[in-house]
Amino acid sequence: MKQLTNIPFTVAAAVVAVAGLCCTSCGSQNHAETGRTGRPRVTFMLLDFAGSPISGEKAGEVLDRITEYTDTDPEFQFVPHDNYDEKMGLVFSNPENMPMIMYINKITSGIVDAAESGAFWDLNEFIWDKEAYPNLSQANREIAKSLTINKKLIGLYRARDLGRYGLGYRTDWAEKLGLSEPKTVDDVYNMLYAFRNLDPDGNGKRDTFGLAMCRYTGPLDIIQTWFGCGTAGSKKTARSFLSTARKNTRRRSTG
Fold it and tell me: What is each CA distance from 33 to 26, 37, 75, 95, in whole angstroms?
């Protein structure tokens, strides 16, 4: 089995990000209605980034597993990202038809108005019970305060690990090429160069990659900090893409 070793990029964030939350409503759909399997029905309204969520040949199995694990009948309504705020406004205009659980990106005046009108449950009555909710009860109370309106906790924050970004590398390749765990930027560069050019898989072909990334550039932004990119410690706002550090990052990343 291929073994991957993860190394923290750097301290990317000093706080847990509250990039989204799930709120629980008090609408009429919260009555104990039953779904397709006779279990209690639970309705969701969630964000759709890519289109056609929970689809494909395994979709039915995924839903069955969720149903079995939660002993409920979940019903998902996925709303395209571009239309979500508009849809959320329509939902709040008729709280009786709100889904039981919904994704919210940030607290808006509409959400505050809905909360003050009694549209959401107060989760304080539930999640701090360590015996009933051993995982949820470990939530950070200070962060939960930002989701509290009139002393009522209306949602659960979506947490992020403090060190989200990491560099994973093939230890079998590193061992074959005599490379140790990288400690510096130069060590990382030398490892990527060797993975690309020194045939780590032993097939006699130059067909391996030093670094693989998706189109999301977040990890590259972190790599730039290795070269001093950013305005930390400076009182002046600067265009990072024109900085020497940014240019050094591009030069090193492109070989």
Answer: 14, 11, 12, 17
